[in-house]
Each structure stands twice: as structure tokens, then as C-alpha cells.
Design brief:
The longest helix has 18 residues. The chain has a 4-stranded mixed β-sheet, with no helix packed on it. The chain has a 3-stranded antiparallel β-sheet with strand order 3-7-6, with no helix packed on it. It has a two-stranded antiparallel sheet with strand order 1-4. The chain has 2 domains: 81 residues, Immunoglobulin-like (Sandwich), CATH 2.60.40.1080; 43 residues, no CATH class. With 163 residues, the chain is mainly beta. The protein contains 1 helix and 11 strands.
Length: 163
């Protein structure tokens, strides 16, 4: 009988130890909250025609059923730091002419957009020295640059002078 009492006492200690925690168990991942893919709203490529322009991209983490996974942390990167910048909220800013890939990443799942920056001429900017031409045949050096719609110079543009 003493062996039976010892066995029952040991069983009672085990049951109390097993049931003693008030902490809720961590929920196991379900198909609803496991990120299976990432999408970026809009086209897979776009372009800027002016330096300094911005566009905010919206990325969504999705489960295997294609439903949005709320609260997923999205990290943004770009392939060229000189062509565009990208903020933590997905805002892309044109910095220089060229092409870059902007990528949204959630737990190793990615989606990308190709971004091209190609300035389009929108105006000319002239510079003249502050001097007075006081005789016939006097000359001065003028400089000009082609600019985009934000008045940013476009390098490598040919300018032809006529008088």
C-alpha cells in the first residue's frame, strides 16, 4: 500500500507541475498568417522624367490563399543607390538617370519593380557674366544648360548657338 501512496503522490506532483503555468501557449503558425508571397500594387515597371520626383509603392504580404497577411514587416531595398532612393514606407525618389530595381521583402519573400530615370528636356537655363559690352565687336562668354521640369540640369545635352 505504501508503494501505491508513493505512486499517487508522484502522479499528483506531475499533474500540478504540468498545469501550473498561466502563460498562454504561443499559437502555431496557421495557413492564414504564414507569408507565402509578396505583391506590389501597380505596374511591374515605371519611369521618372524628372529628378526629384517621387512615387510611393504599396506592398502586401500574402498567404497561400492570396489573402493579405496583416502586420507583416516590409523591408525596401534598391539595386542602385545612385539612381533612386527608397524610404521605409516605399517612397521611391529619382536621383539620377539610369535604371534600378526596387524590391519589397517580407521574411525572404520578394516582389520587385523596375524603375527607369530618364530626364526629358523641358527648358534652357542661361548664364551670362555681369559685364557691359561697350564697343562694337566686343564679346562675352554665355553658358546654357538643358533642364528638366524641376529645373535640374540634364548632362550631355548638345546646345547649338546661332546669332
Amino acid at each position: 500500500m505504501s508503494h501505491l501512496k508513493a505512486a499517487l503522490s508522484a502522479l499528483a506532483v506531475l499533474l500540478v507541475a504540468a498545469c501550473g503555468s498561466d502563460a498562454a501557449p504561443t499559437p502555431a503558425p496557421t495557413p492564414d498568417n504564414v507569408v507565402a508571397s509578396v505583391t506590389i500594387d501597380g505596374p511591374t515597371a515605371f519611369s521618372f522624367q524628372t529628378l526629384g520626383r517621387t512615387r510611393t509603392l504599396v506592398a502586401t504580404a500574402r498567404n497561400a490563399a492570396g489573402d493579405a497577411v496583416p502586420g507583416a514587416a516590409i523591408t525596401w531595398t534598391r539595386s542602385s543607390t545612385s539612381v533612386v532612393s527608397v524610404g521605409s514606407n516605399g517612397t521611391v525618389t529619382a536621383l539620377a538617370n539610369g535604371t534600378a530595381t526596387v524590391t519589397a521583402n517580407v521574411l525572404g519573400k520578394t516582389a520587385s519593380v523596375e524603375v527607369t530615370v530618364a530626364q526629358v528636356p523641358a527648358g534652357l537655363s542661361f548664364t551670362a557674366p555681369s559685364q557691359t559690352l561697350n564697343r562694337v565687336g566686343a564679346a562675352t562668354q554665355l553658358t546654357a544648360s538643358v533642364t528638366d521640369s524641376n529645373q535640374r540640369a540634364i548632362p550631355g545635352q548638345a546646345i547649338t548657338w546661332e546669332s
